[in-house]
Structure formats: C-alpha cells, structure tokens
Amino acid sequence: MPLSSRDAVTVLSLDQYPPLMGLLSGRTHKDMALKVVQAVLAQGMCVCSLDSVEMLFRFIAPLVHEGEDDEDMDEEDMEEEQVMVARMLHQLTAPTPGLQFAILRAARAHLELGGPARLKHTYPALAFCGLKALRRLTATQQQQQQSGTAADTADAPAADAEDAAKEAESAAPAATAATDAPAAAADGSADVVDAESSLQWLLEVALQLAEVPAPMQALRLLLVCAHVSSEEAGLEMLAYEFFEQAFALYEESVADSRQKVTALQAIVGTLHRCYVFSADNRDALTQSVTSYAAKLLKRADQCRAACAASHLAWQEPPSAAAAGGEPAAGAARAVPGCQPPVRDAQKVMAGLKRALKVVAAAKQ
To answer: What digits encode the pLDDT tens for the residues 65-83?
Structure first.
C-alpha cells in the first residue's frame, strides 16, 4: 500500500485496495488496517464525506469487526488497537452538524459489528464526537437567533421604504425561485438535524454502551447528555429522560459499593447544575437521589451523600455557577426554558437533619 509515497486521502480514493487486502492472511490484513489508522492519525487527516468514511471503514474492517481470532487476542493488544480506532473517530469531521451526524451514524453502523470487547473502547469516543457536533449545532442556532433579532431591530425602519420596490421586482424571480425550491430542498435535506434528534441518537448510544456492559461509562455519558439537554438545548423532557435512564442504570447495573458512591456523587453534581426543570420534575429527581443516599452500605457514605443531596435545594445563579469552571460568556446566553435557581432553605435543613440522624445512629 502506497502510504509512504501518497497521503491518506489519495489512498482512500483507491477503491480496488480493500478487495485486494481481503486476499491477505488474517494477521497481515489486520496489520495493513492498523497502518491505515496510523497514517490517518499521523497526517492529521480529516475525513469529511460519507463516501470517504465508508471507504475508510472498508480499509480497517479487521479492526472494527468481530473475527474468529478475537478469542486468541491478548486483552492489552485489543485495547491498544481499539484506542487507536477511537482516536481516529475524532478525525471524522464535517463542515455542517447535519453531515457530521450522518458520518457518525455511518461509523456507528460499522462499530456495532465489533462486539462488546471493542464497543467499550470505541463507543465513548463516538458519543463525545456526537456531543461536539451537538454543541456546534446549538451554538449556531443561538447565534442565528441573536443575529436575527438584531437584524430585525436594525432593519425595521428601512423595510417600510423598500416594500414598494421589492413588490415590483418580485414577479419574475418568484417564478424562478418556485422552480428551484424543490431541488434546493432536496439538496439540503440530508444536512437537516436538530438538537432533539441528536440527543435521541446519543441516548441510544449510551444505552447500547450499558449493555456491553460498561455501566459506569454509560452512566457518565448519560449525565453529560442530561446537562447538555438542560443547559445548551433547553429540552426539559429529554434531560429528565437521561436522568431516569441514569437512575435505572444505577439501580440495576452498578453493584460495587464504592462505585455506587462515586455514581451518586456524579448524579448530584450534574443535577445541581441543571436549571431547566420545573418544580415537580426537580422534586421527583431529588427524592430519588435522597432515597439512594439512604440505601448506601456504610453509614459514613450515607451521611456524606445526604449532605451532598441537600445542595440540590439551593442553587447559585447560572452566571455565578459558571464562574467556577466555565466561561462566563457561555452562562450568559439565553437558554430556552431555563428556570430560576432553586432556593429552598427548609429543604436544605431537612437534608442536613437526615445527615445528623445518620450520624446519631452510627454513634449508637
């Protein structure tokens, strides 16, 4: 393969090479696939079209598909290969979020053929590529809304003066536009994507990751998606769904006591930073967290979790909360459905009293 004399983009256009590589022995075929991945990473190549993505996965099929020799592979060798594939996923970039998600869907169709041993390494990278595309999408939508509002305010006086001239000129262009509109719509339909459908796709990826099983990875991914749904997309019901799935995973799949403590801390921290929930939905989620805190194995863990859960009843304003770790400019943007911060002193005291009861019981 001419990787030393040609760049990876040129190699991916050689559609006769994958069938030729298929004639090689299994070990040699996999070595050649690994060299393709290494070349993509070394050259910093960006794969930005669906055709190129499909060709790339044809080249590296031995790395991403289950094979007969998987049982003989050392776990460390498998991990090393799949980490390289996961790094390569970040090179699958596109100029528009719609095309980006189309590329990621195509990549997922190939990756899910790799079985659990591969998915636990590649799916987290795939999901975070999706989150990156989603953040681009929401940022673009917010910029368009802000620029549209500003343009409407600035152009209002001039629009009245130009109406008469536009009416005279609109007859002929309107006929042409009517003819061209269906073709334009057909061309752009492939790139149409919204935040809700993107988050639904991420939910599917997270739940599939949980079945690997990789419960802690899936739970962290669900919480990240819940925060994005709340604070960047402003979708309350989707954010609630992500938390519900995280709770179900916590109950059914997280068995180790130390992992339960870590998972509950992550849940509390994420929920505390979400401002999209109505009072009823927030109370339901908070009650679930409180019940989980009371069921922890050790008294000390119960006490710490009860103290942490009490923070859910007292939030800082979004701008002040962001100042601790995120740019203030990001917190200042308007998020649809954002609720005022919760400030309920009685619930805070009730949570702290529960922690004191646990301490008193531990002393006896």
So the answer is: 987 777 778 889 999 999 9
What are the two backbone dihedrals, phi and then psi, of residue 47, each rounded to the nearest 5 degrees?
-90, 110
242 near 134, Cβ under 8 Å? no
Distance CA(41)–CA(36), nearest Å, equals 9
| % of the chain residues with pLDDT over 90 | 61
The model scores a pTM over 0.90: no
Sign of CA dihedral 92, 142, 191, 200: positive
Number of Cβ within a 10 Å radius of residue 296: 19
Give 200's contacts (C-beta < 8 A, 6+ positions apart): 238
Rounded to whole angstroms, what are the CA distances from 137 to 124, 190, 233, 250?
20, 15, 9, 30
Write down the residue that tokens 């109950």 correspond to.
251
Q: What is the DSSP string of 145-189?
A: HHHHHHHHHHHHHHHHHHHHHHHHHSHHHHHHHHHHHHHHHHHHG
Give me the residue label for tokens 């060798």: 77
